[in-house]
Design a protein that fits this description.
alpha/beta, five-stranded parallel sheet, four-stranded parallel sheet, 11 strands, binds N-acetyl-L-norvaline, binds phosphoric acid mono(formamide)ester
């Protein structure tokens, strides 16, 4: 495995999930594989789970770890080619990324979408510029359209908690006070569509994901109907793809409540975090036995450690 930026870099998903569960039981069994190797974790945006779990995973493998908040700790970077740099950007990505590639064996990158220019975002401009100029394997820490480490984590967690061979999994849109990326739902849908689950995406009209991500998932436009008989409820807000980056709906009927959870098959509640309590989901659900969001976040370490081990093994 060279890069890890999407499901397409995962050669065998069930094997990856099983390796992660084995890694969870023996976290230090590969503690020398990363010796004298350095990973640089670059954050254009905030992070708690990705920042801490990826550092822990790399350290469990014996790697050296460097972390930088790009633009805050470093210079503002120009991503576009052929630009006269007489504005507020002090450095071009071509030099910055090439220099980072001199210091690191693997580069982790978090760069959220602009939610303004859909073409730039969905062409993964920033991710591709770093791939081009670092000359190193890139580990996505959430890009403009996907969050693959989160989705591998989510699949590991479903595998751990499922009670049937083919559980009913529901990705349900929920309201939010800000316009959020489509990355997590895009990626979750992509991984669910490649897994042994009965998958439904529930959202208001106008929030359809790009077809290449929603695939052949069942689509439901009702805020309650999809909860019937569900085994896993995965809540997430996202802004409109069609009316790009816009908030079209803030109806509290889409918030996850205990009344809705009672319609399920004693479903487990999942969310990638951070979550806005009593906006996305009511306290009663998060504070109940339905919720596995903390265990889910704990699995971020094993997902990252499994992927990093594969990337280290692929280094020339
Ligand atoms: C892991 C989630 C990161 C981000 N969340 C926020 C609040 O920006 C998102 O919705 O993509
Ligand atoms: N789920 C997730 O990626 O969390 P952070 O944004 O805190 O890293």
């Amino acid at each position: 495995m060279h890069h890890f930026t999407s499901i397409h870099d995962a050669y065998n998903i069930p094997q990856l999930v099983n390796e992660a569960l084995l890694m969870k039981r023996a976290p230090y069994s590969d503690c020398f594989i990363g010796k004298n190797k350095t990973i640089g974790l670059l954050f254009f945006n905030s992070s708690l789970r990705t920042r801490l779990s990826t550092q822990k995973a790399a350290q469990n493998l014996g790697m050296n770890v460097m972390v930088m908040n790009v633009g805050a700790d470093s210079w503002q970077l120009e991503m576009n080619e052929g630009v006269i740099m007489n504005g507020d950007k002090a450095e071009h990505v071509s030099e910055a990324a090439a220099v980072i590639g001199q210091y690191c064996d693997i580069v982790g990158l978090r760069s959220f979408p602009s939610l303004v220019n859909r073409e730039d975002d969905y062409s993964e401009l920033v991710l591709n510029q770093f791939m081009k100029y670092t000359g190193r394997p890139i580990l996505s820490l959430e890009s403009a359209t996907r969050h693959p480490l989160q989705s591998l984590t989510d699949l590991i967690t479903i595998q751990e908690h499922k009670k049937t061979a083919r559980p009913k999994v529901v990705l349900t849109w929920a309201p939010h006070v800000k316009a959020l990326p489509q990355c997590v739902p895009n990626s979750f849908a992509e991984w669910m569509n490649h897994s042994e689950v009965d998958f439904t995406i529930a959202h208001p009209k106008g929030y359809e994901l790009a077809p290449e991500f929603s695939g052949n998932a069942n689509i439901c436009y009702d805020p309650k109907e999809a909860f019937e008989g569900a085994d896993f409820i995965y809540a997430k807000n996202w802004s409109s793809y069609q009316d790009y980056g816009k908030i079209l709906n803030s109806d509290p009927a889409w918030m996850v409540t205990m009344d809705k959870m009672k319609l399920t098959n004693t479903a487990k509640f999942m969310h990638c975090l951070p979550v806005r309590r009593n906006v996305v989901v009511e306290d009663a659900v998060l504070d109940s036995d339905h919720s596995i969001v903390v265990q889910q976040a704990g699995n971020r370490v094993w997902a990252a450690q499994t992927v990093l081990k594969e990337m280290l093994l692929s280094l020339a």
